[in-house]
Amino acid sequence: YVALNESRNALACLMGIPSSARNASATLLLARLLEASGNHRAAASAHKEVLRGTPIVLESAIALAQLGTPVREIFAIQPLLAHLPWLVQLLHAHSAEGLHDATRAHEAFGALGAHFEGSTHVLLHTARAALFRGHDDEALALFQRARDADGNLVDGMDVFARGLAKADRGAELGRLCRELLFIDRRRPEPWGAVATYWTMRGEHARALEHCERALSIDERHPFAHQLKGSLLASLARPEQAVYAYRKANAIRADLDSFIGLVNAYLHIEKCREALSVAREAVQLMPNSARAHALLGSALCAQPNAQDKTKRAFAKALALDPQCEEAVMAAVNLNAAERNYQGAIELLQPLLRKQRRDAIHSKLGDMHALKHDFTQALAHYHHALALNASLKSATDGLERVEGMIRAVQQGDERDDALHDAVANGLHDDESGGTSPPFYH
Prior knowledge:
Layout: H1 7-15, H2 24-36, H3 40-53, H4 58-66, H5 71-77, H6 85-98, H7 102-115, H8 120-132, H9 136-149, H10 157-166, H11 170-183, H12 188-200, H13 204-217, H14 222-234, H15 238-251, H16 255-267, H17 271-284, H18 289-300, H19 306-319, H20 324-336, H21 340-347, H22 356-369, H23 373-386, H24 391-408, H25 414-422
């Protein structure tokens, strides 16, 4: 039944075996199936049963940490585990991951990586934590190191594919898809990667077909549901996108699913629902700067919520001064108040991070609004040198050239110049797949 992807039948068979008659392998399989079905409490009980009888089953210890069981309780169940310092650190890292504390998880997995440099498990989880924090360049490097360590690695490669697409590294993404399909076509990750490739090419209908194929292999693969939601939103089917994102979140709560839900609700003008989802994200991930930035984005659509919006973005920046979503939103707020120098000062530190093309483009916008056309042109050209297809930079360059011509013709009205750039501030550089607050 498991091989046929008939999880319900497999679960029914295992549940029919008395607990006293189940061996460790059967109980571990039961725990996996219960966890996959979303019955986390029963899954935790099964994992505890495994751990009591078989202390060397680290999978159960890790699963318990990720399901929210306190590490001290895991050691109380199986005291032998507490005598291995590296395992103590590993369980604390997974506990932080399960609690959606990406900063603590990132630091803990990073420390483990210094001792276990070739561990694909540690590399993949460090990469996921880095992605959650918005450290895209670091995450991509870690995913690549994991692939270098194991050429047949499939786990997490659809997430890696999304990162490559976001970084506009199409040639690498194409190679990754070919290699994954050669390794194992019976896993959902290769088809998710292929769907991401066609999404990057702008062929959303074709991408959706491959996404459905991934789900036909594993209907509970959260990334495939996330990607399906993004594709449905791109195909102007936001109501269906909401369902896909909710399915992804039901399987495993994830910030990207919350972001997709908020965007889909805002698209169909369900602002109250968008705000409710954003608040749920903050409640689940109180230490996430990106979650607070998402709340700020949802508050932007609410009437008379400007002060609350500013507080949400301020909280995000206090948690992480380089949270790109929060910085970009704060930049737009500063631009609306014509505090262009303040916006520039917020953007400058981001040049040391990822997506430098988008940062240069936004800096070009701010310098244009300051009437510093020389700097504006320099930043737009720099952005296009990094990414020749970046629409925001191309549009910005055209606007500034038009503004320069207007100045030369004597039309230097401040309002006209401000509106010319401000009207283009919220253009979507990525073709509509990123959240609106991202820019």
